[in-house]
Specification:
By secondary structure, the chain is mainly beta. It has four helices and 25 strands. It has two domains: 2-200, Glucose Permease (Domain IIA); 211-369, Protein Transport Mog1p, Chain A (3-Layer(aba) Sandwich), CATH 3.40.1000. It has helices spanning 194-200, 220-225, 347-355, 362-369; strands at 2-8, 13-17, 58-60, 64-67, 69-73, 82-84, 88-97, 101-109, 123-130, 142-143, 148-151, 165-171, 181-182, 191-192, 211-213, 228-229, 231-233, 236-241, 246-251, 262-271, 280-290, 295-304, 322-328, 334-341, 358-359. A hairpin with a 4-residue loop joins β1 (2-8) and β2 (13-17). Residues 67-173 form the M23ase beta-sheet core domain.
């Protein structure tokens, strides 16, 4: 039996079609609610693997909405990648689904961690983009941590033409929920950030606050708009906001959308001199230099005027008083980059990021190709 996921309008709503889907799901036994068995990651390199779509990021491509899980990329599709159960549980779904290819859903009982009361609940996990021909489990089977449940599919029918990767999401319910995206940030409340979940069980740690070079899969248009190199804390990532042609640097830890976890917001304008918007009050302005090449910059302490509507598609803190640094790579008519900081961000972290910025030029690109 094949099931189809149909996206409804621009909101990415999900309907399930197929025999038996309307029936009442068997209620799972409660014998392992307080499981003492460990929690493991679904693939070996989950901790260090590359991500394209993380929990809470907004996308508008084949599907539209806020991503409810993490996507773990596969560097070499020729490599066979085993997918394992993260904890004790029972399989509630295993089939081919439009938009995923092979999908397995398991209702899990993870150990209850006293330090994290929210961990004391059953959860369901979605393992997406598997090859159905490699399924090792079926609906009703009980599983243990680390048990292989299947193998990732390669791009094509096995993944419904999606790139080869693991879509992994966790939600607080026993029913089968196959949506990869939700229409609004509030709808993320039933989902758990995988990084948070694994953090409860001591797998991903508290996050790395040392600066690391920003390196990830980004839409080509994003790279064209922002030819920037910089270092950010290891616990951060970047969200490309196509509606504004903006970068949102956000903390990958915690609940809510990536926009709600925003730390730095980057936009641009093309001009011959520094410009300021009529929508904000400037409390102070300071000239300075930033980056490895000592780029000309100006730092503002700004605040949105009371009579101005909240900024659309931007983090909510952009409507509060905060610091913004504008900088450029050359004189004359050129591109100015606008780097705004969340008012709760440590000033030392912001300054360190500013000091390491590099604007990529044609000379830099030619050096890489030589």
């Amino acid at each position: 039996m094949k099931l189809s996921i149909v996206a409804i309008g621009v909101f990415g709503g999900i309907l399930l079609f197929g025999a038996g889907c309307s029936g009442t799901l068997e209620r799972l036994d409660r014998e392992i609610v307080d499981s003492k068995m460990p929690v493991l990651t679904p693939v070996e390199n989950y901790t260090f693997g590359a991500r394209y779509k993380r929990f809470g990021e907004f996308f508008d491509d084949r599907f539209r909405g806020y991503h409810v899980g993490d996507d773990l990329e596969v560097k070499d599709e020729k490599t066979t990648v085993a997918v394992s159960s993260i904890a004790e549980g029972r399989v509630t779904f295993a089939d081919w689904v439009e938009g995923y290819g092979g999908v397995i859903v398991i209702n899990h009982a993870a150990p209850c961690r006293e330090r994290f009361p929210e961990s004391c609940q059953r959860v369901s996990a979605v393992y997406g983009h598997l090859n159905t021909q490699t399924f090792q489990v079926h609906v009703g089977d009980d599983v243990v941590p680390g048990q292989t449940i299947g193998y990732l599919g390669v791009q094509g029918p096995q993944t419904d033409n999606e790139r080869s990767h693991l879509h992994f999401s966790i939600y607080r319910a026993e029913d089968v929920r196959l949506a990869g995206y939700v229409a609004s940030p509030t709808a993320l409340v039933d989902y758990i950030n995988p990084r948070t979940f694994f953090g409860w069980h001591g797998l991903l740690g508290g996050g790395d606050d040392d600066l690391h070079k920003l390196s990830r899969l980004t839409e080509p248009s994003g790279r064209d708009v922002f030819p920037l190199e910089m270092s950010i804390p290891g616990s951060w990532d970047v969200e490309w906001i196509s509606s504004l042609e903006a970068w949102n640097l956000y903390d990958t830890r915690g609940a809510g959308s990536a926009r709600e976890r925003s730390q730095i917001f980057i936009r641009y304008f093309d001009a011959s001199s520094f410009l300021t918007l009529q929508t904000v009050t400037i409390h102070s302005a300071t000239d300075l230099t930033v980056g490895d090449k000592h780029y000309t910059a100006r730092q503002y302490d700004i605040e949105k005027k009371p009579n101005v509507r909240n900024f659309v598609d931007q983090p909510s803190w952009r409507n509060e008083r905060h610091i913004v640094t504008d900088f450029r790579g050359e004189d004359g008519f050129t591109r100015y980059f606008v780097m705004a900081a969340n008012p709760s961000l440590d000033q030392k972290v912001y300054d360190r990021i500013l000091s390491g910025i590099h604007i990529v030029t044609e000379d830099d690109q030619s050096e890489h190709t030589d």
